[in-house]
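Let us work through a complete example step by step.
Step 1: write down the sequence.
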Amino acid sequence: MTLEEGRRVRLAEDLGIGEAFAGESGTPAGFLSLGAGIEGTVERVDGVLPESQEVREYQRLKALFEDYGHTMPAASRERLEAEIAELEPEWTAHRERGDRVTVRVRWDNGLVLDGAHQEQLTPL
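Step 2: predict the structure and record it as tokens.
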């Protein structure tokens, strides 16, 4: 799905936003959420989400290992392999997500949601 500015969308699933507080006392009053089915208009498409620090570190270490691993002392190579293995789950999750686009949506009720993932929206 390609989202573009001006396109009408519908929220595909309930989206929890956070706790709501009452008055100066800060007493919790409930939980704020947007319900699935709410409709709005895409105001801005921000593009692909940046890679996390862990993903960038995995790529850096993997490239280092591939280029120079064969020349490293055994202990250094083993330590590098362990660091790569530790970051492997983050890398796998990143690859499974693929390129994720974020958008800014103005809902018909006047609320604005910035940084929404395209997977959470259904085009109309």
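Step 3: interpret the result. The mean pLDDT is 87.
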